[in-house]
Every structure is written in structure tokens, then in C-alpha cells.
Amino acid sequence: MKLPTVGFAGMTHLGIVSATAVAAKGFPVICYDPDSSLTSALSNGSLPIVEPGLPELLAANGSSQRFSDQTADLSECDIVYIAPDVPTDDTGKSDLTNIRRLIEAVAKVLAADSIMVILCQVPPGFTRGLRHLPPARLYYQVETLVFGRAIERAIQPERYIIGCASPDQPLDKRFSRLLDAFSCPILQMRYESAELAKISINMCLVASISVANTLAELCEKLGADWSEITPALKLDRRIGQYSYLAPGLGIAGGNLERDLATFERLAAEYATDASIVRAWIQNSRHRRDWAARTIRTALLDSKPEATIAVWGLAYKENTHSIKNSASVATIAQIKGARVQAHDPSVQDSAVGQLKIERFSDPLRAARDADALMILTPWPEYRDIRPEDIARVLAGRIVIDPYSVLEQKEAEHSKLIHYTLGRPVAQQSQ
Asked: What is the pTM of this model?
């Protein structure tokens, strides 16, 4: 049987990664975007995003993955995914204007029996409200995008969650064949359940993050060490070895905050309780400011004009995005200090509003600084020896929330090493 041709409309992070993964499974893929300069660049292997493994996979796909700025080319497809990233405003509310416009444009060119799959994240009720296609030809699929690990998760998904008009009916055979190629469980449910499943997953993740941050802060005050407690939780079957229990600088990126904001709005509309969600948001914002509070107490209260080196501007490692970045928020709170920054992927244009000096090498950024703040745990920072940091710093303070530096080596190098989940009394003084 001939493999179905799969289309992807919208070449943002989600669309590019998802299309490349499908092409890597041997399916012919057509990637559409109205931006001709973007599709031309992608055709030449030039990517607008940073994602480990993506350039190599795109190159390996060759002619099986082609790019076009013409919607008419999608008429060749048996399946078309609506796959652009959905932008959010400062309150976490999704702007669906462009998504609706894209769906309408794609629906006009689809072949009579082709199906459409909404892949981008939309609020519950969105998919059933579409009137462009018969319900039997319309699906919703929960996306699995995680910046920095997107290719890994796209090629080896944990499961597929598929929203349908009638979940008791079998999936279209072409769609089943595509999903079966990824050898993972397929959970079929009604549209609204699938749309809410994504929010549910992120809320459980937020709960784990909030537990880790709340207890790690108490460890810092109490004399406990959170890294010693974590293995006990991982071995409890009610919590599990894969639980997200690493403390960090609050909730970053766009998806988690969007889902919390969406839940708050739904709770208000249907008069259900959202007090725990508001508490999670408050907890996140409190922990986000840990680095700024710590550097003020350790240095800036006595020397407000100090020079601070900052390693990492992205909201997490292996991405170029600064959406809700704790690093950017921290820099905004230490006005008066001189900031020397390094990040391997964030472009200058993305942080133009910040008053910082950029360096292409992390040790050059740290040279003669009174303190170093490692605010994004990029892998390359773990390869830098604490003794080399101590050699170039003018001061001794290192704010390292994610424990990028090995603690004993940092202490041996006479660095004053602050990290999340350990009390100051255990730090080198």
C-alpha cells in the first residue's frame, strides 16, 4: 500500500520539528508556510530555530521533505497537520487569529477525502467548533514539543493522544498507518478530552515543580539537602523514578504559563475552584526571583555598581527562546550593576532591551567580574572547570541555581557557591 503523503502547515518550531520527524519515518512530506523567504531558507537547510539533532535529520531526509509557500501544494496530501506555534500574550492567553486564518486557507485546497489534524495547542472546545470539514475528516493531536528535546520526543513519543468527533469509531486508515510508524500507545478520545489532556499533563508537571521548589527552599533554611531527598521520592511508587523533582527558577517558557492561565479562565467561566493554580503561579514567581535576591544579599547591597557575569539568557538549555526567561527577569532586577553576558544561541536582537555586554566566550564574559551567575544550565558550561572560573573572576561568588558546577570542585577552587536546595551554611564562605 502506498504511503500517505503528509502535509504540515506552519513552519514554526512545532511544524518544523514534527514534519522532519514524519519525513524521517519514510513518509513523503510537504511543508507549507506563506513566508517565501522562510521556505526558501529551509529548502537550503538553514533553520530559524535551535534544536539538537534537527540539522542532521533535515539533511538526511533530503527530497522526501520539501518546502513550499503555495497552499495549492497541500492538495497532494492525504493528511495535513495544522502545526504553527500559538503565540500568547503577557497574561498567557493564546492568540488564535492566525491559526483560524491558516485552517481556512488549508481547508479550501484539501482533496475531497483528505483529513486535517490540529496539532498546535488550542483551548478546549476549539476543534469541535470548526466547521471547515466534516467531523470524520477532522482530528486533534496533542503535541509533544519540549524545547531542547524536541527531536528525541518527536521520533520516540511516549504516546499519542488523539481527539476525535466519535472516539468509538476507528481512525482513518491513513492516519493510523502514520501513527503506527512511531510504535507507541495511541489514546483515542473526544476532542475536548484531548484538548484538556494537554493542560492536565502540564498541571501535573507544574505541581511537581512547585513541590520541588517549595521544599528546596525550606532545605536552604533548615540544613537539609534536597539532592539527598530526591532519590527517596524517586523510589516511592506513588511518585516514581521519572517525576520532575529538580528545583529551578520557577516556570519558564510559554506552554506551562499558558495552560495555567487557560485553566484560571475556564474555572472562572464555569465557577470551579482554581486556588491551587493561583498558588502555583505565586510559588513560581517567588522562586524565579531567588537569583536576584541572592546576588543582592551576597554582593549588590554593599556594592550596587558591581560587575556581574551572566551565563545563559535562554529560558532553558538547548533553545534560543527567552520566553518567560528567569535569566532575563533576573537581569531586569539588578539595575545599576554592569552585566557581562554569554549565551550560545540567543541572538542579540532578542534581548535588545537589556543593558548588557555580550561576549562570544563564557570565560571572557566572566573575566574581572565580581560574581558569576549561571542562569541557564547549558551543557557546555558543565565542561568549564571551576578553577578556570576562579582564575578569571575578580570576586569569588557564583550563583548556580541548577548546580552546573560540581560542588566539591567549586569549594576546592575557593568559590562561594550558591545553589538551590542547600543551605547557605553548607556553602563555601
From this structure: 0.83
